[in-house]
């Protein structure tokens, strides 16, 4: 991964509290895993920015190197990588996701 791509990723992650690197866009996810995380975030009433990795091959490859995580989607909260679909789904099921969001100062408006 080149430095410009890494810097772009850092800029994206730093631009908003919750960022989801996903396939597709929040209104039209292009894989079931991305769609599942979108549903969870929407269900919690958490505003987030979706980054369509299919639209940018540099970001698609770069985010995997950046996080050292091989799959997409990838969820970041306040600059911290939380995980992919399975981890987010498990955290949600256990009530941990809402707790982490609240701890980081991100408003959860639904449950």
TrEMBL record:
Gene3D superfamilies: Glutaredoxin (3.40.30.10). This is Glutaredoxin. Pfam families: Glutaredoxin. It comes from the Bacteria. The lineage of its organism: Bacteria, Pseudomonadati, Pseudomonadota, Alphaproteobacteria, Hyphomicrobiales. Belongs to the glutaredoxin family. Monothiol subfamily. PROSITE patterns: GLUTAREDOXIN_2. Residues 18-81 form the Glutaredoxin domain. Keywords: 2Fe-2S, Iron, Iron-sulfur, Metal-binding, Redox-active center. SUPFAM superfamilies: Thioredoxin-like. One of its GO terms (molecular function) is 2 iron, 2 sulfur cluster binding. [2Fe-2S] cluster binds at residue 31. InterPro entries: Glutaredoxin (IPR002109), GRX_PICOT-like (IPR033658), Monothiol_GRX (IPR014434), Monothiol_GRX-rel (IPR004480), Thioredoxin-like_sf (IPR036249).
